[in-house]
Design brief:
CATH superfamily of the largest domain: Nitrogenase molybdenum iron protein domain
Bound molecules: zinc ion
Helix content: 25-40%
Distance between the termini: 49 Å
CATH architecture of the largest domain: 3-Layer(aba) Sandwich
Largest sheet: 4 strands, parallel
Order of helices and strands: HEEEHEHEHEEEHHEHEHEHEH
Strand order of the largest sheet: 4-3-5-6
Length: about 325
């Protein structure tokens, strides 16, 4: 078991070593030079941040690893900071997988320090070619981190997961390659379904208004204009002027539906609806979209494929198409 040490200075107190494979039929504690002991395990223990990262790592790892996802359904990764319990899980893992591109912006220091311990810390979205990424319009020195909204782009991250797992667990290399190919095939089917759904929306109504700017990659892939009331990150609040500008645009374009998100307060979306009503344009609120988290485990939206499929269907239905 992990030692119990005070939270302050925990990273300095624990010297971690990476143990490749972690196999063995009779688990024995693995003791490091610093006295930290982690149990030898039948399987790799991989800690992931968001449910979307957990989904792709689970798909590639198959049954060769135990996957722990730190952020539960509905938790906003932009605002997430690791709790003491999260830190202990991170320290006990054989490898840590993040989305990256500043998505888990408040946790960056923690993971940087884990990386210094010598264990793999893999930022899967940062493996994508820069030319595939969108810039944050409000801060052009940052990329938009919401890459899981484009199925083909997100499928590319599976190759970085495959490569990292193959280094950690070379005996599983063939399994990881097979699982990656299967994931890419499923992503291609999802891509076709999304294209069909969005393609059914009347051209003039292809404008997606959501609580925050998480759908840029989805819009680029399928030909939708996107407007988020808040920016790329939920850390900054929308101003009254921002809402007024959007009210004007929604009224001019006669947008029929705006969307709330499961991880973001609906306050600003409701302000939009009221603003439009005051101008004589009735706009409805569509199904809640899954932007930065999946649905509950066991539900169709509890997987990345189910999440994106739900979003495409809800957007199409809300904007006059057929989901
Ligand atoms: Zn977001």
């Amino acid at each position: 078991m992990l030692r119990t040490v005070p939270f302050v200075g925990i990273f300095a107190a624990v010297i971690l070593v990476f143990v490749a494979g972690c196999g063995g039929s009779s688990p024995q504690p693995t003791t490091t030079a610093g006295g930290d002991s982690r149990p030898a395990r039948e399987k790799l223990l991989i800690v992931c941040t968001t449910p979307m990262v957990g989904d792709v790592v689970r798909a590639v790892a198959g049954d060769r690893a135990e996957i722990v996802t730190l952020l539960g359904p509905g938790v906003d990764p932009h605002l997430w900071s690791p709790t003491r319990s999260d830190v202990l899980q991170i320290l006990g893992a054989d490898a840590v997988f993040l989305s990256g591109l500043m998505l888990e912006g408040r946790a960056g220091d923690s993971f940087a320090r884990v990386g210094q311990s010598g264990r793999p810390v893999v930022r899967i979205a940062e493996s994508l070619p820069k030319s595939d990424l969108l810039l944050d319009v409000a801060n052009s020195s940052h990329f938009d981190p919401h890459v899981w909204m484009d199925p083909i782009l997100w499928a590319k991250t599976a190759t970085s997961v495959r490569d990292a797992l193959s280094t950690i667990d070379p005996d599983g290399k063939d399994t990881f390659a097979t699982n990656t190919a299967a994931f890419e095939a499923e992503a291609a089917k999802l891509d076709s379904a999304c294209a069909l759904a969005v393609g059914s929306i009347p051209f003039a109504q292809r404008m997606l208004v959501t609580a925050h700017d998480a759908f840029g990659y989805f819009g680029r892939r399928y030909g939708l204009e996107v407007r988020g009331i808040q920016g790329i990150s939920t850390e900054s609040e929308a101003s009254i002027a921002d809402i007024e500008r959007l009210v004007n645009e929604i009224c001019e374009r006669r947008v029929p539906t705006v969307f709330v998100e499961t991880t973001v307060t609906d306050r600003a979306v409701r302000a939009l609806v009221e603003g439009c009503a005051a101008r004589g344009h009735e706009v409805q609120i569509g199904d809640a979209l899954y932007s930065d988290s999946l649905g509950r485990g066991g539900s169709p939206e509890g997987t990345w494929i189910g999440m994106v499929r739900h979003n495409a269907k809800s957007i199409a239905n809300g904007l006059g198409g057929r989901g």
